[in-house]
């Protein structure tokens, strides 16, 4: 197959074709507009220079070289130097004379559909039954923690006992919500870093020294209105998934994001919370269903953690998205900052 430049130019789909050495031979105007750069500056550019998240397309091209079938790279992140990164599902088709045809089908970084809303009623009933069975053991743990707290000294693990007590309270509140759904609690001003520090303490006690935990915080971020317990649960689900995916390092990164669109609404400012790990990555066969309940890449997994994290994001008018390849996975929680939020 040989691309027809005239036909490609008439397409609204961003299209480019590559030499066998993986430099750009040409592209249509839609491709240049999508990246915000002129066609002249694209010609001869190595494809690697356009990958905002290096490695995904190169690995796909290595696989494409072994066969003639088109390959799809889901949610690839492309961008020109100094410009804004764009997300797209990219199709790579080998050309008869060598090289590849590249089609970019743009997608939203934070899609508006919420798969977590698809939780079936039968599963809801099962969860309520499980919640009822767990209440008594949690009450026993709470009592044991209180007794233990009276016996340990200041430097003898009292902080860990307090952590056990607070986590039991949080889980009990979660079970109460499953048994008797009520209106969400009013949001109160919170510091996102306080939430993440609590999550890191849980991770330290869960993984010990097996995982390196890294803080990469922007200390200038403002407070936002939210539910600290729910955000703790969402962030902890993301970190625990990273640990269970064999990560040797997990980084919690926070940044400010300006002029953000989440779904149909625009926000002048949002907090970007990223959980970055070097584990096995998301299996390709789960990429389209990852946020659905009961979908898990582990035999022992429940498949509820990411669905819950997605729901918590929506409760805060935010969004949860991810990008992944083996050795580098990033889950991004975007939380808008209302204009009336405290600075």
Short description:
By secondary structure, the protein is of the alpha+beta class. It has helices spanning 5-9, 29-35, 39-42, 56-64, 121-151, 158-179, 192-207, 228-244, 305-315; strands spanning 15-18, 24-27, 71-78, 86-94, 100-106, 188-190, 212-216, 224-226, 249-262, 265-277, 319-325, 328-336. It contains nine helices and twelve strands.
Note the main attributes of this structure:
five-stranded antiparallel β-sheet, 9 helices, 2 domains, elongated, 12 strands, alpha+beta, Heat Shock Protein 90, five-stranded mixed β-sheet, single chain, 343 residues, Beta-Lactamase
Describe the model:
Residues 129-339 form the Histidine kinase domain. The protein is α+β, with helices and mostly antiparallel strands and 343 residues long. The protein folds into two domains: 5-106, 2-Layer Sandwich (Beta-Lactamase); 115-336, 2-Layer Sandwich (Heat Shock Protein 90). The chain is 36% helix and 25% strand. The protein has nine helices and twelve strands. It has helices at 5-9, 29-35, 39-42, 56-64, 121-151, 158-179, 192-207, 228-244, 305-315, and strands at 15-18, 24-27, 71-78, 86-94, 100-106, 188-190, 212-216, 224-226, 249-262, 265-277, 319-325, 328-336. A five-stranded antiparallel β-sheet has the order 2-1-5-4-3. Strands 7-9-10-12-11 form a five-stranded mixed β-sheet. Helix 5 runs antiparallel to helix 6 (158-179).
């Amino acid at each position: 197959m040989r691309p027809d430049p005239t036909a490609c130019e008439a397409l609204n789909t961003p299209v480019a074709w590559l030499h066998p050495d993986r430099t750009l031979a040409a592209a249509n105007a839609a491709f240049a507009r999508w990246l915000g750069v002129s066609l002249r500056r694209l010609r001869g550019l190595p494809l690697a220079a356009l990958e905002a998240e290096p490695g995904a397309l190169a690995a796909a091209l290595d696989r494409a070289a072994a066969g003639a079938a088109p390959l799809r790279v889901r949610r690839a992140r492309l961008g020109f130097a100094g410009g804004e990164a764009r997300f797209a599902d990219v199709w790579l088709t080998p050309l008869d004379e060598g090289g590849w045809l590249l089609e970019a089908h743009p997608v939203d970084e934070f899609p508006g559909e919420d798969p977590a809303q698809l939780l079936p009623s039968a599963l809801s009933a099962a969860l309520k039954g499980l919640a009822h069975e767990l209440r008594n053991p949690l009450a026993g743990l709470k009592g044991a923690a209180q007794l233990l707290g009276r016996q340990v000294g200041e430097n003898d693990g009292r902080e860990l006992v307090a952590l056990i007590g607070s986590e039991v309270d949080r889980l009990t509140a979660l079970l109460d919500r499953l048994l008797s759904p009520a209106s969400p609690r009013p949001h109160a001003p919170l510091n996102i870093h306080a939430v993440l520090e609590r999550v890191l303490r849980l991770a330290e006690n869960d993984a010990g020294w097996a995982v390196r935990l890294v803080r990469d915080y922007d200390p200038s971020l403002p407070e936002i209105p939210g539910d600290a317990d729910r955000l703790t649960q969402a962030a902890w689900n993301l970190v625990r998934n990273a640990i269970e995916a064999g990560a040797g390092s997990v980084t919690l990164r926070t940044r400010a994001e300006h002029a953000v669109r989440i779904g149909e609404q625009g926000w002048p400012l949002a907090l970007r919370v990223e959980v970055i790990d070097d584990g096995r990555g998301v299996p390709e066969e789960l990429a389209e269903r990852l946020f659905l309940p009961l979908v898990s890449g582990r035999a022992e997994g429940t498949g509820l953690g990411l669905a819950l994290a997605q729901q918590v994001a929506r409760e805060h008018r935010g969004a949860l998205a991810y990008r992944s390849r083996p050795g580098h996975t990033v889950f991004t929680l975007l939380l808008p900052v209302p204009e009336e939020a405290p600075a």
